[in-house]
Design goal:
By secondary structure, the chain is an all-beta fold. It folds into 8 domains: 78 residues, Immunoglobulin-like (Sandwich); 80 residues, Immunoglobulins (Immunoglobulin-like), CATH 2.60.40.10; 80 residues, Sandwich (Immunoglobulin-like), CATH 2.60.40.10; 80 residues, Sandwich (Immunoglobulin-like); 77 residues, Immunoglobulins (Immunoglobulin-like), CATH 2.60.40; 73 residues, Immunoglobulin-like, CATH 2.60.40; 78 residues, Immunoglobulins (Immunoglobulin-like, Sandwich); 96 residues, Sandwich (Immunoglobulin-like). Helices cover 0% and strands 55% of the residues. Strands 3, 4, 6, 7 and 8 form a 5-stranded antiparallel sheet that branches. Strands 18, 19, 21, 22 and 23 form a 5-stranded antiparallel sheet that branches.
């Protein structure tokens, strides 16, 4: 075993260990240090000097021995030394009660007579603060906020021997942030709070409070966004800085009034046509209101007011979209409910009424905005007529003629109903059909028509309609005269009343027949001395005719279906008046008067021939009227001969007549006009050349012949 070592010195620098120094022992490879306190001891193997034994108790007296060791064993313990461990370091409890102070406290240390605490900035700036105290706490003040400080403390014993020290880094709490600014976003109902960064602050907390509601926002930057704010609220905003030492004081609260909430209880009413009244409930923090009214044609108007109602002009048939916003310094309220209000449809315009008949009126109008349906209401007469349709026209039937009606066209919409302010239109119906009471003949081709008048404003048109054409007359009274109606025609006569309201239906037709026409041409031809043939042209409308020849000596009459007639018993040489009556199928008669007729003079009687000398013949006859001249004609195969005596004579002579021939002799009155009469008796004489004066008369058609 090696030699026993000798301890040069032993001391304690730490409260849990003792350090020993010695001279090296030859041959020793290790050393064993032993610290003993009564029955308690601690051993430590070390390589060389100095060596430290640890795991000791502070402020405790130990007996220290040293032994050398090699492969041969351990040496004997060295002479002991008594060494006392130093005091334990105080265990500090440190905090920063304010931004410019640090409080330090600790528990009492065994065997400590006092304590020494020093403080300095961790960055080395500034001076060192040191405090000696017998207390177990102290406070450093007037420090820099938010700054990291290093605190060192140790205890000493009654001999002034310092013990272990305890080092602690502590930051002062930060100062309150400054220059706090609030930027409110009215559209998103959020706010951004910003401030100047505070020295030593690690985090910040923004508190937004309103009544019992508190919102917080934590951040390590110098701004923070606080969402989900409420409208119409006042918030108080403060910022607190934090670090590992604690928090600063909150900043003075900044007031934030958010935008007002959207107005509610909005009501829209049309207090009178053309005026809209929009009203709403007042809103907290609302300083004024703006009402926007946009019509469905794109036109928009608005109203600014500090009251809770606005008036707007409106037009019929429009849909208005209405929104109300409240405003304050923070901005505009959120968009609330958008209301639409449809005004009553416009009253129909361009109203027109056209009479279709006496009991039917067709009304039309121009389409109007907002109307889905139209109702036509008719008042007057015996009742009310209704017409509902989507069309802009209505035919009103079953009305009473010649009656004033009040017609009102109302427009309807599904959204608003009826426009009850539409004005009525006064429309009379057309006159009633006239009733023809009498048709009378006023004169030739003149017919008077009378009817019952039922409308003082009406003009009546009477029409006679027939194959011959149309004839009219008009009157505002109850009668008119049809002029120049053609004879022999059948007509249908009707009357129509026309007023500003329209035209009536035609009256029932009344048949009218004019008297037949008198024949234009009438010819009289004397067939024999007592028979005259009368012929005439056809008279329009006539079926039968009655012709009459009348003279003081008598009358000759004929009734026939034909347009000719033979009248007998005519007296020769007599003046007759000629009349004709044309009679229609229904018995209407036209009396026609013509130029008088004179029958031919009477044929002479007692016609005889006497032979004269030098081949002459004298024709002799008896006359009834010496004022009439006569003509004698002799016609034979050897020539024709005639003679006419002077007025008043009853004979005439023909000279140089050939004998030996048979002559037909006719003596007839001489007329001023027309051909010679052919109906006077003819006598046949034979003129011989014997010179005998005896003759024989031969009549035509008989064997009785007279010879001269």
């Amino acid at each position: 075993a090696p030699d026993t070592p000798v301890i040069d010195q032993a001391y304690s620098k730490l409260s849990n260990s003792i350090t020993v120094e010695w001279r090296a022992v030859p041959g020793a490879t290790n050393y064993m240090l032993t610290a003993q306190d009564g029955d308690f001891f601690v051993e430590s193997i070390v390589k060389n000097s100095p060596g430290t034994v640890t795991g000791l108790k502070p402020a405790t007296l130990y007996r220290i021995t040293l032994r050398s060791i090699n492969s041969g064993g351990k040496s004997q313990p060295s002479p002991s030394k008594k060494v006392k461990t130093v005091l334990a370091a105080p265990i500090l409890s440190v905090h920063s009660p304010s931004c410019d102070s640090i409080a330090v406290s600790w528990k009492a240390v065994h065997m400590a007579a006092g304590f020494s605490v020093s403080l300095m900035r961790a960055d080395g700036l500034g001076r060192i603060l040191k405090e000696n105290t017998t207390n177990t706490s102290l406070i450093f003040t007037n420090l820099v906020p938010g700054t990291l400080y290093t605190i060192k403390a140790y205890a000493w014993n009654a001999n002034g021997m310092p013990g272990d020290d305890f080092t602690y880094n502590q930051r002062t709490s930060p100062n309150a942030p400054v220059d706090v600014k609030v930027a409110f976003n009215s559209g998103a109902l959020r706010t951004v709070v910003s401030w100047m960064p505070t020295e030593g602050a690690l985090t910040y907390s923004v508190t937004v409070s309103s009544g019992l509601l508190k919102l917080r926002c934590n951040t390590s930057s110098s701004s923070c966004m606080v969402p989900s704010l409420q409208c119409s609220s006042e918030y108080y905003i403060s910022v607190t800085a934090y670090n590992d030492a604690g928090s600063s004081k909150p900043t003075d609260a900044v007031s934030l009034k958010t935008i007002p909430c959207a107005p509610v209880n909005i009501s829209i009413e049309e207090d009178e046509p053309g005026h809209l009244l929009v009203s709403w409930s007042s809103v907290s923090f609302g300083q004024y209101y703006v009402v926007f009214v946009k019509s469905d044609d794109g036109l928009e108007v608005h109203c600014n007011t500090s009251c809770t109602q606005c008036h707007f002009q409106s037009d019929c048939g429009f849909t208005y979209f209405i929104s109300v916003f409240a405003y304050n310094k923070a901005g505009q309220s959120p968009l609330g409910d958008v209301f639409n209000y449809t005004t009553a449809p416009c009253c129909p315009s361009d109203f027109r009424a056209v009479s279709m008949s006496s009991d039917t009126v067709r009304v039309t109008w121009a389409p109007v905005r907002g109307a889905d349906l139209y109702e036509t209401r008719v008042a007057g007469g015996s009742g009310v007529v209704l017409c509902r349709d989507t069309a802009t026209a209505c035919t009103l039937s079953a009305l009473e003629c010649n009656t004033p009606y009040s017609i009102t066209v109302y427009s309807f919409s599904e959204a608003r109903g009826s426009n009850s302010s539409c004005a009525p239109h006064h429309v009379p119906t057309a006159p009633c059909s006239p009733e023809i009471k009498n048709i009378s003949k006023e004169g030739l081709s003149v017919i008077s028509v009378q009817w019952q008048s039922n409308n003082e404003e009406a003009t009546y048109l009477v029409t006679a309609r027939g194959e011959a054409g149309l004839w009219h007359c008009t009157s505002t009274g109850n009668s008119c005269t049809l002029m120049d109606l053609p004879c022999g025609s059948a007509f249908s006569v009707s009357a129509v009343a026309t007023s500003p309201a329209g035209q009536s239906l035609p009256s029932y037709s009344v048949p009218l027949e004019t008297a037949p026409c008198c024949p234009n041409d009438l010819r009289l031809t004397q067939v024999t001395q007592s028979v005259t043939n009368i012929s005439w042209s056809a008279g329009t409308g006539a079926q039968t005719y009655v012709t009459t020849l009348e003279s003081p000596k008598g009358q000759a009459k004929c009734h026939t279906l034909h347009n000719y007639c033979l009248l007998g018993c005519i007296t020769c040489g007599t003046n007759y008046t000629v009349s004709l009556r044309a009679i229609s199928e229904t018995g209407l008669t036209s009396s026609c008067t013509y130029q008088g007729y004179s029958s031919s003079a009477c044929c002479p009687s007692g016609v005889k021939l006497y032979r004269l000398s030098n081949n002459g013949i004298r024709v002799f006859w008896r006359v009834s009227d010496e004022t009439i001249n006569y003509n004698a004609d002799l016609r034979g195969s050897k020539g024709n001969f005639s003679c006419t005596p002077s007025l008043g004579l009853s004979h005439c002579d023909i000279t140089q007549i050939p004998c030996g021939d048979v002559y037909t002799v006719v003596v007839a009155p001489v007329t001023d006009k027309g051909p010679k009469l052919t109906f006077c008796p003819k006598k046949v004489y034979s003129v011989t050349c014997s010179g005998s004066s005896v003759g024989m008369v031969i009549y035509r058609g008989k064997s009785n012949t007279k010879h001269i």
